[in-house]
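Q: What residues go here?
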């Protein structure tokens, strides 16, 4: 069943009536496998009496947030912890006829088994997922209809998963337009917004680098040194030839990795810009180290990382709640 109501980002959402206690909103961002850390984070917040009233999610954040809102976080954690490299591969239903490398049918079946026919409007807390309209790039807020449909649309990574048709529109990954949906949390009536982001050791802060190597290689074949032929490494033996070719092959990323890295860079730059324009009241950074974006089988490590990040953020969150109470 398609989602009957989609609130675009330029349309206001009516917030619920104010209460004495501040309404906590949680903006869960993307990050592929890194998103498993959000499971541990949510468990820590709830254990410390900081259950969110509003959750807005993009991509994997929509998966975790949606399962939490539906009371299915334990089932998601069990699934995540059960993943092995072999099982992850078995979930990849490759297709050569669709708009993505994966049809997503196997994951859709699992989501529907987990979430059933739960409607967003029936959830105990306010939930919304962010998606992107294929033709226009418009940000779409999915605030009603089938939860499983909204979640699938939000994580439909372009080129990897096929887009999802909802309400007459083809939608894909919401992280392209709003990777950490702080604005959506506020629109849904959150008084305090906590943003959750993933930080990897091998991802830079951006900027511009003037590479002398690029200038030196101008006009040269990729991987070949510039300068006099005498300065080049000798290729007089089969062994050196094989070693040189192996180095060149290892330096070139695969198509899938190139696509994922490009998407991750784009998401990071958009997130920085949007968070600067509408900063959250508190920020939780899950430092995932060198765990890869497709390392879904490392859920146990990531969940522990999320728990540690949540514990470290408790004091800051309580300070924000205290300040909001004093201003009320």
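A:
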């Amino acid at each position: 069943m398609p989602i009957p109501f989609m609130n675009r980002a330029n349309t206001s959402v009516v917030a619920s009536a104010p209460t004495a206690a501040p309404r906590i909103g949680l903006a869960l961002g993307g990050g592929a496998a890194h998103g498993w850390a959000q499971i541990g984070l949510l468990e820590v917040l709830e254990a410390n009496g900081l259950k969110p009233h509003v959750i807005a999610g993009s991509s994997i954040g929509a998966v975790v947030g949606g399962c939490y809102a539906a009371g299915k976080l334990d089932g998601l954690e069990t699934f995540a912890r059960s993943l092995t490299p072999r099982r992850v591969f078995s979930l990849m239903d490759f297709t050569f006829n669709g708009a993505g490398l994966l049809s997503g049918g196997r994951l859709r079946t699992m989501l529907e088994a987990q979430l059933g026919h739960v409607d967003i409007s029936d959830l105990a807390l306010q939930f919304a997922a962010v998606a992107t309209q294929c033709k226009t790039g418009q940000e779409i807020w999915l605030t009603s209809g089938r939860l499983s449909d909204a979640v699938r649309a939000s994580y439909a990574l372009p080129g990897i998963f096929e887009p999802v048709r909802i309400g007459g529109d083809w939608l894909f990954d919401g992280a392209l337009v709003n990777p950490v949906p702080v604005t959506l949390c506020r629109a849904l009536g959150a008084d305090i917004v906590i943003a959750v982001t993933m930080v990897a050791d091998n991802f830079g802060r951006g900027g511009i680098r003037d590479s002398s190597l690029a200038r030196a290689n101008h006009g040269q074949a990729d991987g070949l040194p510039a300068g006099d032929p005498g300065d080049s490494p000798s290729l007089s033996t089969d062994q050196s030839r094989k070693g040189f070719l192996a180095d060149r092959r290892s330096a070139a990323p695969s198509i899938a990795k190139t696509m994922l890295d490009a998407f991750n860079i784009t998401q990071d730059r958009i997130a920085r810009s949007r968070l600067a324009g509408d900063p959250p009241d508190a920020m939780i950074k899950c430092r995932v180290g060198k765990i890869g974006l497709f390392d879904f089988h490392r859920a146990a490590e990531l969940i522990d990382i999320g728990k540690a990040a949540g514990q470290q953020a408790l004091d800051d969150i309580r300070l924000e709640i205290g300040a909001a109470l004093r201003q009320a």
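A: Context that may help when evaluating the design: The CA atoms of residues 114 and 241 lie 53 Å apart. The chain has eleven helices and eleven strands.
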